[in-house]
Every structure is written in structure tokens, then in C-alpha cells.
Design brief:
mainly alpha, about 0% strand
């Protein structure tokens, strides 16, 4: 399998249409304008990235960029449709990504905070500043390891014999065909039924299994990279210690760190409610966040009967702008140094 460096990074030249983006920004208003501005900024930070090969930290950086860009696209669509539920789910994930970026930057941020809190009394040596940024880059490598560990777990689940047997089992379709009434109802509701014969299913199943197996081997080889080994060791040690596997915060802090505690460490504990609201919507554990409830009537939260979708869209833009700033600072350390 290829190492990281054997892959070239393809940076999409989205700035070619920068004039169109700027025109769209000028025509937009309110929350939509904020979302477009953030996307334009994301596009512009790609301009300075030279042609280069992959490294763990560069791949991690690019994955964060892609997540943020995609979330902004989704938020714009949800805002256009006035869909509060979708915006709150997007806001939730963007909020967490911001915490990830802040955690990656923490060594450098802490040093700057120390210097600023003792202005004129504390001088930060250049080698100390460089060491702090080197730590941030290592944390970015840790983020790559954390993501790859999750990818590996997913691929292993996909390759589990019970998973493969269930996905490619011909019996459900065969039983539907044997029941004309049930078959017609199923197609009316779900669309055409996949009626491949067992030979085709076996062939396609084998092709699918081979492709997933190759992806698993690539991910496993990347996890064996020397730069990721310290992080992989911690992930392996903590895999059985936390439900759902180690969080990124516990990977960095050597202890289970909840989101409320993480926010408290950065003086932002008051904002936990925002994270919790989005989590409730994503997990389905809420009525109030998906229904507009008045004095004597209620309706699905579509449009702006009580909740203003623009407020949630602005929150998405705010989180993405913070993450964008972090990516801009990190970009200089992994490409331009």
C-alpha cells in the first residue's frame, strides 16, 4: 500500500470563480451573506497552498476544510428552505468541529494567552513559540489518527460476515416477489426492488468486499505511520475504556474530557446549551426543538412561526469562521514554513 507521501494533494481551484462568489455575497443579505462570506474565505485560503504530497497533518487539515465547506453548503440550502431542524443539526456538528480546531491550537493559544496576560513583563522566546506550534502540528496528526481509527472501525464492521450476509441476502427480494400484493405495495412506497439473481449478488458482493478490504488495508497502513504511532497506541489503550471509543479531547488530555468540561477549560461553559440543543435534535430526543408550540396549537418547525432559521444559520457561520481562522493559522505551519 502507498504511504501518505505517495499521494499528491489535489486542491480544487474554486477561486477561479471568485468574482461570481463576490457578486453573490453582495446580492445576499443577513445570515445568507454571512454563510457565503465564510465560504469565500475558505476558498481564498486555498490559494496559497502549493502543489504538494500528502502528510498526516495535511490530510487532517484538508478533511477539516472539506467538512466546514460542506456544512456551509448544507446550511445555505436549509436556510433557503427555512428548515430549522436541519440547521440545528448542522450547527451542532460545526460547534464540535470548532472545539476540535481549538484543541489542536491549544499549545499556541495558551502561550499567546500567557504573553498577553503579562504584557510587557513576559517575553516569549522564539524557540518556545516554535515548540508550541510544533505541538499543534502533532495534535493535527493526532486528529488524523483519531479519524482513521474511526474509519478502520467502520470498515471492519462493514466486512463482518453478518453484515455481508445481510446486505447480499437474496431471500427478502425473493419473498417479496412471491407475494404480488406485498410486492406492489413495497414498490409503490420504496421504488423498484433490486431483483439481481444470486449469481449477480455473489459477484457484486465479492467486488464490494474486495473494495472495502482494500480501503481497510490502506487505512491500517496509514495508522502504522511512525508519526501516528504514539496516537494509535493511546487510541488502542482507550478503545475499551469509553463507550463509542475515545473522544478527540480524551486522546489529547489523557483522560475522559466531556464537552462541558472542555468548554469550561476555555471559559465557554455557558455555551454548552447550544451544543446540547443540536445533540437533542440529532439524536431525536426532543419535541420542543422540532415543533412550533403556541398557546393552543402546534406545528412542525418549518419556516419561522416561532424560531428564526436565520439565528441558527448565523450560529453556523460563527462556528465556521472560528474554525476557518484556525485552519488559516495552521496552514502556515504545514505548507508554508
Amino acid at each position: 500500500m502507498k504511504t501518505f507521501e505517495e499521494y499528491s494533494l489535489v486542491i480544487p481551484p474554486l477561486w477561479i470563480k471568485e468574482a461570481e462568489w463576490e457578486e453573490a455575497v453582495q446580492e445576499a443579505q443577513g445570515a445568507e451573506r454571512q454563510l457565503l462570506l465564510c465560504q469565500l474565505r475558505l476558498i481564498n485560503i486555498l490559494k496559497d497552498i502549493p502543489d504538494s504530497n500528502a502528510t498526516p497533518e495535511r490530510v487532517a487539515w484538508l478533511s477539516l476544510w472539506a467538512k466546514i465547506y460542506g456544512a456551509l453548503d448544507g446550511a445555505r440550502g436549509a436556510l433557503d428552505r427555512q428548515t430549522v431542524v436541519a440547521l440545528r443539526v448542522i450547527d451542532r456538528v460545526c460547534f464540535e468541529w470548532t472545539l476540535h480546531v481549538q484543541a489542536i491550537l491549544q499549545p499556541a493559544l495558551s502561550l499567546d494567552k500567557l504573553a498577553n496576560s503579562h504584557a510587557g513583563k513576559v517575553t516569549v522566546a522564539e524557540n518556545a513559540r516554535q515548540d508550541a506550534w510544533n505541538q499543534a502540528v502533532r495534535r493535527l496528526q493526532g486528529y488524523a489518527a483519531w479519524c482513521l481509527w474511526s474509519d478502520k472501525d467502520c470498515y471492519e464492521e462493514m466486512l463482518h460476515p453478518k453484515t455481508q450476509a445481510g446486505v447480499w441476502d437474496p431471500r427478502p427480494a425473493r419473498e417479496l416477489v412471491a407475494d404480488p400484493q406485498g410486492f406492489a405495495a413495497h414498490e409503490a412506497f420504496f421504488g423498484p426492488v433490486d431483483l439481481r439473481n444470486e449469481h449477480d449478488l455473489d459477484r457484486d458482493g465479492a467486488t464490494h468486499e474486495q473494495a472495502i478490504g482494500e480501503a481497510l488495508r490502506r487505512v491500517s497502513d496509514w495508522l502504522a505511520d511512525e508519526r501516528l504511532k504514539p496516537w494509535v497506541s493511546k487510541l488502542a489503550h482507550g478503545a475499551t475504556g469509553e463507550a463509542g471509543g475515545p473522544t478527540f479531547f480524551s486522546l489529547l488530555e489523557d483522560t475522559a474530557v466531556s464537552v462541558p468540561r472542555r468548554l469550561g477549560m476555555t471559559g465557554l461553559r455557558f455555551s454548552y446549551f447550544q451544543y446540547k440543543l443540536g445533540s437533542m435534535v440529532a439524536h431525536g430526543s426532543t419535541l420542543d426543538q422540532v415543533l412550533e408550540i403556541g398557546l393552543d396549537s402546534m406545528a412542525p418547525a418549518i419556516g419561522s412561526l416561532r424560531s428564526d432559521p436565520a439565528v441558527d444559520a448565523e450560529s453556523v457561520a460563527a462556528s465556521c469562521n472560528l474554525s476557518l481562522l484556525g485552519l488559516y493559522l495552521l496552514e502556515k505551519r504545514i505548507w508554508l514554513r
